[in-house]
TrEMBL record:
Keywords: 2Fe-2S, Disulfide bond, Iron, Iron-sulfur, Metal-binding
Domain Rieske: 418-501
Record carries keyword Iron-sulfur: yes
Protein name per UniProt: FAD-dependent oxidoreductase
Species per Swiss-Prot/TrEMBL record: Cohnella hashimotonis
Keyword Disulfide bond in record: yes
Lineage summary: Bacteria, Bacillati, Bacillota, Bacilli, Bacillales
PANTHER family: RIESKE 2FE-2S IRON-SULFUR PROTEIN YHFW-RELATED, SARCOSINE DEHYDROGENASE-RELATED
One protein family per Pfam: Rieske
Signal peptide: none
Length: 501
C-alpha cells in the first residue's frame, strides 16, 4: 500500500472556505486580530458579535497553519496532564484548566447546534490507553487526579479496538469535528457582522503606543486600539517567545479500512504515540491515524514516520487505501499550559495566544473567549492561569535549561557536520544538505530535474536547517522555523527566507 506522493490535508481538501482580499491600503479599526486559524476566527467573531470594529489578517489563506493540519479532536483530555498539573500548580489551577477546556467544548457544541453548522460534529468519549506496563502506573495516577478534580471519567482494562491494552481511561462526552466548515461559518459571520478579513497579508512589526500600529511586510499600516496575535508563532519581536517555546512535529494518515470502527477517540499513554479517530463527512468514512512526535528538525528521515503509521494501521485495522497524509507542527510552552493573554508586562494593547501542545481545537476556543474578554475589559476566571508572564521555577526553570542546552547542541552540530554529498548526486525529488565550495548548502532536485539551492542557515538565529523529505521542507532544529525547498518561510519564528544560491 503506497503513501500519497505529496502531503495534503484532508480538512483543506474536502470542504470549501470563503476567499478574502489582500490588504493593499492603510487601515483603521478598533481591534486587529492576526492569524487565520480557529483562535483568530473565534476572537474576531466574538468581538464582531459585540458590535465592535475588527479586522482579521492572516499571512496565507484561512486555515493554512496548524488548524488546517489538526486531528480535530475537541476535548479536555489532553493526554496525561491533570496529575502533572496538580503536582506543579495545585488542585485549584488544575481544576481551572479542566473547566476552561470543558467550557470551550460546550461553547463549540452550542454554536454548532444553534446555527446548524454541517461540520461532522460528533460526541464521543476520549480515551487514553496504555499498551505496556510502564503506562499502567501513569493511567492509575491520572485516574486519581480525575477523581480529585471531579472529572467525569471511567477506568477500565480492555479496549473495543483490535489490540490489547494494560489500562485505559476515558473522559466522557467529548467531541470530534471537521474544522473547515466550522471555520467557514465563523468567517462568514465576522463579515456579516461588519468585520473585515484580509488574506495573503503578512504582518511585520508591532508599534507600541496609543493607538497601536502594526505594519505589514508590504508597507501598509493598521492602526487600532489593540492587537491580538493569534498566529502559530507570535509575529512581534519582543517577549523572548523563541526561548519559551519549542516546536514539535507529528504525522497523520487518513485511511480507508475494512474494519468496523466502534467509535471513540484514542491516544496512547506511552511511546510511540498513536492517535486514532474516525471521520464521517459527506457520506465517506475514514480513519485518522496520528503520532510519531519529535522536535521539529530533529527527526529521522521524516518519510519513515509516515511509514511507521502505515505499518501500525495495517497491523491493527487493515488498509484498503491511504487517501491523505500530512504533518502538523505545534508549539509547546515551558510548563505545557498555553500562553494566552497580555504578551508582555507594560504593553496593555498587545495580546497573544500560542503554545497549544497539539490540543489546539479546544485551546483555540479557550483562547478566543479569553482574548475577547480581555480586549473588552471583562473579567475572566482563567486569565491568571494562562497569563504569558507567569514563570514557575518547577517546571519552568528545568525545562528552560534543558531547551537552551538542546539549542546549543544543535547549533554547534550543524556548524561542524561533515557533508560529503555532491548536489549532482541527487536524484529526482531528492533533497539533502550538501557542501559547495566549502559552504554548507541545501539542495533539492524537483521532478523536472531542476536543482534548487539555498543557504541552510536559518534566518532567525543562525542554526543550520535540516531536510524534511516527507514534506519537502527545510526545518530548523533549534526553534522550529520551516522553509519551502526554495527557501520561503512556512513557519516562524524566522521572518526572512533562506538565501537562494
Amino acid at each position: 500500500m503506497q503513501l500519497p506522493e505529496y502531503p495534503e490535508s484532508y480538512w483543506r481538501r474536502t470542504a470549501e472556505l470563503p476567499a478574502f482580499p489582500k490588504l493593499t491600503r492603510d487601515l483603521e479599526t478598533e481591534f486587529a486580530v492576526v492569524g487565520g486559524g480557529i483562535t483568530g476566527l473565534t476572537t474576531a467573531y466574538l468581538l464582531a458579535k459585540e458590535g465592535r470594529r475588527v479586522a482579521l489578517l492572516t499571512a496565507d489563506r484561512l486555515l493554512s497553519g496548524t488548524t488546517g493540519y489538526t486531528t480535530a479532536k475537541i476535548t479536555a483530555q489532553h493526554d496525561l496532564i491533570y496529575d502533572e498539573l496538580i503536582a506543579h500548580f495545585g488542585e485549584e489551577k488544575a481544576r481551572l484548566y479542566y473547566e476552561a477546556n470543558a467550557g470551550a467544548l460546550a461553547f463549540m457544541r452550542s454554536l454548532v447546534a444553534e446555527h446548524g453548522i454541517d461540520c461532522d460534529f460528533v460526541d464521543e468519549d476520549a480515551v487514553v490507553y496504555a499498551t505496556r506496563e510502564e503506562g499502567l502506573h501513569k493511567i492509575e495516577k491520572e485516574y486519581a487526579a480525575y477523581q480529585q478534580l471531579g472529572i467525569p471519567g471511567e477506568r477500565y482494562d480492555t479496549l473495543t479496538l483490535p489490540f490489547g491494552a494494560t489500562a485505559a481511561l476515558s473522559m466522557k462526552r467529548q467531541a470530534r469535528f471537521h474544522p473547515t466548515p466550522y471555520a467557514a461559518f465563523l468567517a462568514n459571520e465576522i463579515v456579516r457582522l461588519g468585520g473585515e478579513i484580509f488574506e495573503e497579508t503578512t504582518m511585520d512589526k508591532f508599534h507600541d503606543g496609543e493607538p497601536a500600529k502594526v505594519t505589514t511586510k508590504d508597507g501598509n499600516t493598521v492602526t487600532c486600539d489593540s492587537v491580538a496575535a493569534c498566529s502559530h508563532f507570535p509575529f512581534f519581536d519582543n517577549g523572548f517567545y523563541f526561548a519559551r517555546l519549542h516546536a514539535e512535529s507529528s504525522y497523520v494518515i487518513a485511511i480507508k479500512s475494512p474494519y468496523d470502527y466502534p467509535g471513540g477517540m484514542y491516544i496512547t499513554a506511552n511511546e510511540p504515540k498513536r492517535s486514532i479517530r474516525e471521520v464521517t463527512y459527506n457520506g465517506e468514512k475514514l480513519l485518522l491515524i496520528g503520532g510519531e512526535s519529535h522536535k521539529t528538525g530533529q527527526g529521522e528521515c521524516t518519510i519513515e514516520h509516515y511509514e511507521a503509521l502505515k505499518r501500525f494501521a495495517e497491523d491493527a485495522f487493515g488498509v484498503d487505501e491511504i487517501r491523505y497524509r500530512w504533518s502538523t507542527h505545534d508549539l509547546v510552552t515551558l510548563d505545557k499550559i498555553p500562553y494566552i493573554g497580555l504578551a508582555r508586562e507594560g504593553t496593555p494593547n498587545l495580546l497573544v495566544a500560542t503554545g497549544y501542545r497539539k490540543w489546539g481545537m479546544t485551546s483555540s476556543a479557550v483562547a478566543g473567549r479569553l482574548l475577547a474578554d480581555l480586549l473588552l475589559d471583562r473579567d475572566n476566571p482563567y486569565a491568571e492561569l494562562f497569563g504569558p508572564s507567569r514563570f514557575q521555577a518547577d517546571p519552568d526553570m528545568g525545562t528552560l535549561v534543558k531547551e537552551t542546552a538542546d539549542v546549543a547542541y544543535h547549533f554547534v552540530k550543524g556548524k561542524l557536520e561533515w557533508l560529503k554529498k555532491d548536489p549532482e548526486e541527487l536524484g529526482l525529488d531528492e533533497g539533502a544538505a550538501v557542501r559547495i565550495r566549502g559552504r554548507r548548502c541545501g539542495a533539492y532536485r524537483d521532478h523536472e530535474g531542476k536543482l534548487h539551492v539555498v543557504d541552510t542557515t536559518c534566518t532567525h538565529m543562525g542554526c543550520e536547517t535540516e531536510w524534511n523529505a516527507g514534506d519537502r521542507t527545510w526545518d530548523c532544529p533549534c526553534h522550529g522555523s520551516r522553509f519551502t525547498f526554495s527557501g520561503e518561510v512556512v513557519n516562524g519564528p524566522a521572518k526572512k527566507p533562506l538565501e537562494r544560491l
